[in-house]
Amino acid sequence: MAELTFFTGAMDSGKSTLALQTNHNRQARGLTGLIFSAHDREGAATVSSRLGLTHDAIEVSTGFDFWQFTADTLASGRRIDYFICDEAQFYTSAQVDDLARIVDDLEIDVFCFGILTDFRTRLFPGSARLVELADRTQVLQVEALCWCGRRATHNARVEDGAMVTEGEVIVVGDIGDPAAQGRVSYEVLCRRHHRRGLTMGSGAAARARLHSHGATGTAGSFGGISGPAFPVPPPGLEAARSGVAALGLARLLKPGVRQSAHAGTTRSSAGGGRARGRDLRPAHQPPGARRHRQYRHADGGRR
Known about the structure:
The structure is a single chain. The longest helix has 17 residues, at 237-253. Mean pLDDT is 76; it is low at 177-181, 215-233 and 257-273. Helices cover 27% and strands 18% of the residues. A six-stranded parallel β-sheet has the order 5-2-6-7-1-8, with helices on both faces. By secondary structure, it is α/β, with parallel strands linked by helices. Among the domains are: 4-142, P-loop containing nucleotide triphosphate hydrolases (Rossmann fold, 3-Layer(aba) Sandwich), CATH 3.40.50; 143-213, Wheat Germ Agglutinin (Isolectin 2), domain 1, CATH 3.30.60. Strand 9 (154-159) and strand 10 form a beta hairpin.
């Protein structure tokens, strides 16, 4: 049974490498397929990986008709077992619809590879349609990393060393030196630093400013910037730490006391302690056991 599968991940997570590996594995088993791409960073009609692997491909322009191309290819007597579709985020919704039709009506497996969102954190039309139609959507397990070390989930466009959030949706570039002047590059960031517009270059500059002011302390306590921060803790942090420490100390001093399900009551497992409040029967006590045990209440009476 043929399937439409969508492999997705941030930039630099190995999508094109997986596309070429998928093609190699199937060719090694005697299957015949076609490779498609759009707006590859190495140029038209090419699939390229940052590991240095490249392969010729069929360029998918905005007006490319997948269904007609496939019908003409099959009519010429050529065999097609699968499609490899790289940079699928740049495909139109109509083209993705054609790919789903090819899977269902012609029993040809289609493997699509692409990123979900653009530099504005908006879904690409092609990726959105793939999520809606694909039999399987798989997030790549190879995690791209933000400059702070967290998992990178967002793609940032950097122009003249600064992150931008406006402009043309499709501008071909690669992950390079974010401080490079006069050209467009891309950088993968975690959500926190994408929201704050902190790229590798701006984050390094901020850390340098903190160092110049003699800042020390824990990472991330100044504006979300990883690295040295001011020694003054965030508001409420010391109070929270004191509360946690006090709770831990109380438990150490009275290891047999634990909180009851009823607010304001306690139960002692060490024996000899006075129970205050409402009925303190253990949760596991069977019904009717109240007749055989007395309880001391806050008023001192026994019941």
